[in-house]
Amino acid sequence: MVDPVRDAARPGERPRGLAAIWPYRYLRECRGATAATAMLLCVLQALAWLVLHLESPVWQAVRRDHGRWFPHLANKVPTLGDPLRYGLQGLWLLLTRPVVLPRFIVWHRLWHSATAPLRRLRLWHGLILDRLRRRLQNGRIETATETVLAGLSCRQRGVLAGVLGLLGTALALLCITEPFGSQAQLLFSLLLWMLAMVLWRLPGTFPTLLLILLSAIVSCRYLWWRYNSTLHWDSALDLTLGLVLLAAETYAWLVLMLGYVQSSRPLRRKPAPLPVDTVRWPTVDLMIPTYDEDLAVVQTTVFAALGIDWPVGKLRIHLLDDGRRESFRRFAAEVGVGYITRPDNRHAKAGNLNHALRVTDGELVAIFDCDHVPVRSFLQLTVGWFLRDPKLALVQTPHHFFSPDPFERNLGTFGREPNEGELFYGLLQDGNDLWNAAFFCGSCAVLRRAALEAIGGFAVETVTEDAHTALRLHRHGWNSAYLRIPQAAGLATETLAAHIGQRIRWARGMVQILRTDNPLFGKGLSPLQRLCYINAMLHFLAGLPRLVFLTAPLAFLLLHAYIIYAPALMILLYVLPHMIHASLAGSRLQSDYRHILWGELYETVLAWYIARPTTLALFAPKLGAFNVTAKGGLIPDGWFDWRTARPYLTLAALNALGLGFAVWRLLQGPAEEIGTVLISGLWVLFNLLIIGGAVAVSAEVRQVRRNHRVTAVLEAVLRLPDGRAYPCLLSDYSVGGAGIELPQALTLAQGSPATLLLARGRREFAFPCTLSRCLGRQIGIRFDGLSRQQQIDLVQCTFARADAWLNRTERYGEERLLGSVASVLRLGGRGYLRLFEHAPGRLRRLLRPVSRLLRWLSSFLPRSPLPASSIPPFLHMEVSKA
Amino acid sequence: MTAPATSLTLRGVRGGVGVSSLLAALGHALEGLGERVLLVDMCPENLLRLHFNLPLGEKDGWARATLDGHPWSASAWCLGNHMHLLPYGCLTVQEQAQMEVYLRREPELWARRQASLASHFDWILFDLPQRLPGHCLLGTCDLSILLLEADVACHVLLQQPMTEGLLLVNRFDPASTLQRDLLLVWQQTLSSRLLPQVMHLDTAMPEALAHKQPVGHYAPSSLVALDAASLATWLLTRRAPLAGERAVPTGSAEQRVTLHAKAGVEPAAGG
């Protein structure tokens, strides 16, 4: 179908003329193929030229975009298996994305006739969808409803709402509780699924709410069925294990439902403008608490804070050093910021901040962790709301990270998949904000001093002082706000172990709050605030339920316990709709912030580690100390974190054992159990792949640069010692160096001095540098010998630009559900490969043939094509100083 | 009927700030944007022509022609499709003084000439001399730009009452703290007059004159060429409102100007 020797590997060397038909020499010399392979490929190529219109424009288009459609074959040394790989990939492309491929393949005669009915169905489906979509977009349905409603009196409207509500509730209850046989359940599920698929393609909030409603009904129905018909009361073991699983599932259901409430209507608050008269702008104390971090890390934050646009004298910056270090004191004096220490370190960060509150007197308090670099517009964007709402106590902005977290680094997904925090900062906080329940996250926030003083300062009772402080503020009737505009960026945790340590602290703290100051009880909170808080806390109890899910199928496979006492078919008929609807609604709500199955992966990594401390904290909330999250380090060599990975390996071994048992039961067990065994086997397989993802995260990838390079597209100027100046683009930067792209290639000597000119608003600054790498138009430079002032200017021209982090929110393409599932599962497979690479020598030698076989087999698997390349925007405007 | 030409004068606050080079660069940049441009050298030094590869020995120019009684417009040069150049011509010191006296006596001379040229061009750019007030009597000009460098001499001269018009900073070097500070002061105190654009210090500018080319042609990817292009774009945005303000000239030009392309002289492309 697709000609195998087509290659866009090196477009410049593509064979032309006769060589295009018989590219033997090219294959041998440029691509390194063996004689036999080259001969075979040439014969196939020639055949392809005979049979197909390879010279036609459509084929030419495929040939041109070869690297995109066949990413795994583009740069590979050709082998004998390649024709088969091309065939499989071609087939896969035809099946998965017939619309995107050039038309000729779709209209290929065979294909055409085979898929005609399907396409007719698709066309019909599309037409209906189009009509629906248009009606929705015109708002005709809404206006019609509104006119009907407008004609009613207030009372009539209330009655109508009541009647409809009652009817709806009754119907929903019926849908949830009515027991069905397998056929009825199948039909019911299919109908709801079709409805959901139509809704999924319709734009707008209303279809989203309907999708959520459908998912809620199906999930409730599933849980109802589980409670009523799937417990084996006759066996103590079955019942106990079954109840454990059911408890875990109830937890998952609860979190799902709460999540729907929380994220169905994100507020998307806009900044409030400040008064023109700067006299009315409040005074701000900007506090940077630090304990044992490097001065280099803290410096950048202070430099950026110095450049925040705010009236002179109304912004005071304080370095809160709990480490009481002389170098910090000198640094603070040198750059002219306040330096606050205290004799003891009681209550860690919260105590540090409380002490600083006592010695400062600004109306507002801005808090930045020492590794969060604020941009210049931070205060101008956040403070407006304080002037508008006198009861506002907190404005929180997202935590944005310019370095990859362990997941992103070790899985290679930085900038391609939404990271762990994005769901929270992108969606949940905005959802909380609708109910006045956005909470404090410890950094990148502004608080009102009066409010803090009213509640007695930052809460010191738990290890997560931030959430607890916010809870207290809400209890005392203060309001909070969330602005989803990244106004600061920082370093993500370096290693998986550190990441887990941080999450353990959060989990422990949240559960402590749950125990000591439960948001469900006590005064001052609205019901929905309680709900938002309880959801945030429940989220951290996910450890135990996740462990249950990861081991549940073993109960049947190993112990032969009927934990779900129902026929296999019925299980499928209930579970699948529940999962599918939850995925559809979830994807609809959060596809920009978290892709499907990633939540499972994050939970799996943390499950074991947070299960114990959260359970402990539930019973003994007073235990546990504050641990500082280490950041800004190096990982000199790639290594495998065996210690951290131990629970994953245990779980993987257990599930592998389960897989063995499944095979054994399949061969030896009674025939009527085959269905159950198959389902359990699939479950185990899924568990294995998810655990594989966790294993993959444990293989730490090398990280050699001390200063993280931030990718950017900034205008800059490179001036050479001879006085010539060239406008260029800054493509990445850090405090130590930068990468630039010149408009034309220059012959420059490595190591020669130069000057980089950068603009900040209408001002320009020059930074002496050395050319460290010269590759045509790409130049790497190193800053050396910058004066203190130049260091400050450099940070303010780069990290602290108002638009520095703005283009990062909408960068992921539309989520393809199945594609995302496949990619996560593939990550799982890769985890075992990485495990093998890091395995001790003898084991590796033993397993090498197996891994080779697996690798070879997997090379035939089709890949998803690369996205069409996009050109980065050339010019970036910066918001200028007001 | 197309809008009449916008006239722009460029003059240094003091001598030697690089007016001629910048005018040549600006003319070239405007031409690159598809504008019809006439560059007029009002300086007796007669240097502007050197940016366009005219021979050093070429004596002709509008002042020479005026003194000799020839038609002044015949001494213009056609440079490419849309750009024309009117050199000053070679005059002795006495002749220059004579010219100054003549121009003072005939203050309407260049106003008339401008009016006759207006419909043929989109832009008429004048390179004005320092100390010859007669040479600066051009009638009304749409834009007058004073060129200065970010140094103390210019800062002092700016405080004197004689300076009017928009301000453009030339040869700006961000590496110099003094220059950065002065620019910041001007941005705060003279923000209504200061152009948003500065011209950067770049060796490409003097090198361009050595190659007898405008800088945008000599080193198109240099910083100062980009600056000139930005300035030209900014001027275009200023041209639209200006054209609206002005009354449409009455009657058609009675003196038809003929601008000759002289054989044997390549425009700048000859490099």
Outline:
Chain A is built from 32 helices and 18 strands. Chain A has 882 residues and is an alpha/beta fold.
Q: Mind explaining what this structure looks like?
A:
Chain B: It comes from Azotobacter chroococcum. Chain B: This is Cellulose synthase operon protein YhjQ. Chain B: Pfam families: CBP_BcsQ. Chain A: It comes from Azotobacter chroococcum. The complex is a heterodimer of chains A (882) and B (271). By secondary structure, chain A is an alpha/beta fold. Among the domains of chain A are: 1-107 and 840-882, no CATH class; 282-492, Spore Coat Polysaccharide Biosynthesis Protein SpsA, Chain A; 710-804, Thrombin, subunit H (Beta Barrel), CATH 2.40.10.220. In chain A, the strands form 4 sheets. In chain A, strands 3-2-1-4-8-6-9 form a 7-stranded mixed β-sheet, sandwiched between helices. Chain A has a 6-stranded antiparallel β-barrel with strand order 13-14-15-18-17-16. In chain A, a hairpin with a 5-residue loop joins strand 13 and strand 14 (725-733). In chain A, helix 13 crosses helix 24. Chain B is α/β, with parallel strands linked by helices and 271 residues long. Chain B has one domain: P-loop containing nucleotide triphosphate hydrolases (Rossmann fold, 3-Layer(aba) Sandwich). In chain B, strands 3-4-2-5-1-6-7-8 form an 8-stranded mixed β-sheet, sandwiched between helices. The two termini of chain B are 36 Å apart. Mean pLDDT of chain B is 86; it is low at 246-271. Chains A and B meet through strand 14 and strand 17 of A and helix 6, strand 8 and helix 9 of B.
